[in-house]
Amino acid sequence: MKKLTLAAALLCGMAGAGMAQDWRDSPWGPDDELGAANHITPESVLAASKLIKTGKTYNLGIVVDSKTPAFAPRSMSITVLQPNQITTQGLGTNGMTYNDDIFMGWLGIGPQIDGLGHIGIKHEYYNGLKGGEVAQADGLAKLGLHNLPPIVTRGVLLDMSAHYGQDIVEEGTAYTKEDIIAVAEAQGVELKKGDTVLFHSGWLDLLDGENPDHERYVSVEPGLGISGAEYLAEIGVVAVGADTWGVEPVPFENGTDGVFAVHQILIPQHGIYLLENMDTRALAEDEAWEFMFVLGVTRMKGAVQMMINPTAIR
Question: Which of the ends of the chain has fewer CB neighbours closer than 10 A, N or C?
């Protein structure tokens, strides 16, 4: 698949911008809805399992509540009920009681996966699907996350905080192809086709302590730049994640008026999944640069995004 030139990528979100003409054709055929997940095979899963040396597991999802900062206007809450029990001693002669919860909110809150139906370019989506073919009010007719098989891959963590010598990488910092190559070499890891690549910036530390900075956390961020995104797409990774709310740098790279151009490069142009608000701190502390990555997404028909809690195993 032809890559966008840097100049074209910078204009991804701009009206009237010229786009590469072959990004709409999936290398897996006209009916493909899985994108880079096609790289996952029984052989690649077995290879990933051989990375397990200690059996230690890591939660990569952060804890979510109604105060979790999110891309506006997203919000969520839960309500706990005890149906048909309030005025009784419970159900049946044995007094059985239970709690149920009602979820109200957006599925793109906190730790989340962006599916292939999330981002388009002028109302065209992965594999050249038009907006009307994809989006229906009651769920995606194409590219829904319920189609996604389990993501079981080799995982690689790139410690950008160490690379830049900053506990929390400055907002707007764009991870370039050269940065990614340098970090991988410093850590002694090789990025490979079929990987899930995670970036650690320390950004989640803004939510810690007695006075968390919610406003800064969700209004700006460091992240994967355009040349870095094109490089990962060239390698053929399955998914890209970060410990930030939007994976790519905000303010957007090079001061362009393009909006979420890295999302456009990864999702519609290359079928690569995005993982946001990943808690990479424990992995970074342990210098766990490669591991087995496991993610099974809730199979809600037609879902665009989903809250997730992937597991890293080393």
Answer: N
Cα 111 to Cα 117: distance, rounded to the nearest angstrom: 18
The single-letter DSSP state of residue 255 is G
Radius of gyration of the chain (CA): 20
Percent of the chain's residues with pLDDT above 70: 93
pLDDT band at 6 (very low <50, low <70, confident <90, very high): very low
Distance (Å, whole) CA 201 – CA 222: 7
The CATH number that domain 6-70+107-313 falls under is: 3.50.30.50
Span 8-60, pLDDT tens digits: 443 444 333 334 458 999 999 999 999 999 999 999 999 999 999 999 999 99
Measured CA to CA in angstroms, residue 219 lies from 5, 71, 72, 252 at distances of 28, 8, 10, 11
Residue 63 has pLDDT above 90, yes or no: yes
DSSP 63-123: P--TTS--STT--EEEEEE-TTTTTSS-BTTTTB---EEEEEE-SSSSSEEE-TTS--BTT
Q: What is the pLDDT of residues 207-235, one digit of tens each?
A: 998 899 999 999 999 999 999 999 999 99
The DSSP H or E segment spanning 140 is strand 139-140
pLDDT at residue 188 is higher than 90 = yes
Sign of CA dihedral 192, 142, 117, 18: positive
263 phi/psi in degrees, rounded to 5 = -55, -40
> Domain limits of the chain?
6-70+107-313, 74-105
Whether residue 232 contacts residue 79, with contact meaning beta carbons closer than 8 Å, is answered with no
State the Cα–Cα distance between residues 46 and 109, nearest whole angstrom.
32
Q: How far apart are CA 191 and CA 185, in angstroms?
A: 10
